[in-house]
Amino acid sequence: MSTTSSTKSSGPVSEAITTKLQNAFQPTHLEIRNESHMHNVPENSETHFKVIVISDKFKDAKTPISRHRLVNEALKEEVAADGPVHALSIVAMTPDKWQAKLDKGESVGPSPNCRGGDGSLPKRH
Fold this sequence. Notes:
The chain is an alpha/beta fold.
């Protein structure tokens, strides 16, 4: 399996996430999706992300929550209460599980659009 990486944003938070996940997991496949545009945040924000991390490092992490904990630990500065990331959706799999998903024609779609949040930010136009 070849190593692939994709970042759908090139801001400093996206770049930090990419670097930290590459260093921590040496993934065979990595996608960083900035989904902030789907939420009520200022334009060009980097607050809402989906990460897809495929790595052999997850072989010993048998449950999804244990894999999520590993990713959260790698990104602890970004997801801290005072960090830049407000929401993080994680897909973390071994290469075998990922390939099985692809072989079935499955993919990872976008997260659902924001349903309003707490209303504390001004509306986008």
